[in-house]
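note to self — DONT lose this again. spent like an hour looking for the file last time. sequence + predicted structure for the chain T wanted, 165 res
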Amino acid sequence: MKKDNCPFDEDGRKLFEAFHRFKNLKPGNHLNKDMSQGEFMALIIISDYMEEHPQSEGIYVSELAKSMKVMPSAISRILKVLDEKKLVTRKVDEKDRRNTYVFLTEEGIKDCEKHKRIFDNYLQNIARRLGSERIEQISILSKEIACILQEDQKDMEEQINEEYF
């Protein structure tokens, strides 16, 4: 049933409400009050990179930005906070001074591992409550929705521009 103040049909309204519920959720933020989701994600990516490349001096800041799909300015802000918390260190690449490496400090490694364990327990609890079959369904549907949104985003932007500009 279409609500009077809602411009969508019933299926559209259900999707809109579901997106709205997820938009306001920030999984795991309540697990660590002193670290943003972006900071936590950066720590995980740096940690994973260091585990996969133990001989490297760290991950390039530009590579971290690409992995997180954010602008370099956003990474700079995140790294500044993590640096102030003494969780990461940055080092200029001596072979190419335009590049900077970032790596976890000992404190960063400990903090990251602690929060990975907490978040893993959190996700395992959700997985246990939903079950494998429903998780698979959610995974498939979310991939389909993401593809549709990406495909339709340009068309939607063009419609908005035509209508308002």
